[in-house]
Amino acid sequence: MLWLLLLALPGPGGSAPLMAESRLNPGLVAIVGGCPVSPRRYPWQVSLRYYSKETDRWEHLCGGSLVHPRWVLTAAHCVQPDDLEACAYRVQLGQLRLYHHDRLRKVAQVIRHPKFNHSLSAEGGGDIALLQLEAPVMPSELVSPVALPPAGLGVQPGTRCWVTGWGAVEFNTPLPWPYDLQEVEVPVVGAQECERRYQGTSSQPGRQVILDDMLCAGSQGLDSCQGDSGGPLVCRQNCSWVQVGVVSWGRLCGLGDLPGVYTRVTSYLSWIRQFVPPSAPR
What we know:
Blueprint: E1 2-4, H1 19-24, E2 35-36, E3 45-52, E4 57-68, E5 71-74, E6 89-93, E7 105-112, E8 129-133, E9 160-165, E10 182-189, H2 191-199, E11 214-217, E12 232-237, E13 240-251, E14 260-264, H3 269-273
């Protein structure tokens, strides 16, 4: 996640993103307060990879979710800068343990939302992107798309949802070997309450921090963290999983008064549907 270093540079205006650090030190790749995932529980989970010359392998960069046999949803800040072409990325599907029998898939196209501002990064909103795979995947028990939410779905404060990833287990504490996918249940925090909490960290008091396209979730010791960016926040609706958020940004990890911030998927359904056709019913 694009978790910001408040201890070094207070306030969002002077915060330093960790994306560059993760590429220089790809070992900084889990969920805070989470547990290993059982097989077939999250068949849409994706590991987004970026080639490292230092290790001579495709390193985990961010999470993502399969939303169609040929499309992956992730965060726009995970696929920066803009001049990087699709060939710079690979995705791994159907895997619970990073780097265990990798079968990487090539990316044919990267589509960042036009609202995303590189200089503002995730805090500016529009932190969402689509990756088109070179070839569609064959759905199976281990690999299948997650459902997108209906346009009118509102996630009420207190709703318990789940976030998954291979990110840090605490701020700057990487997930230990053997790098098992982690899951954690997090409560949704209302937008007004989340805004109130984050106002105390803002270098520009009065400026809205939690934008309309953002969703907050998390509590003390239960959160997403570095390396989880782009991954899915899913909730149960009518006995099915739907993806309501994309891991985006936050302040440190697992702080009770500062929940994680997610891109709200319902804010971008019409944009997603410009490229991604509805999946066939399963």
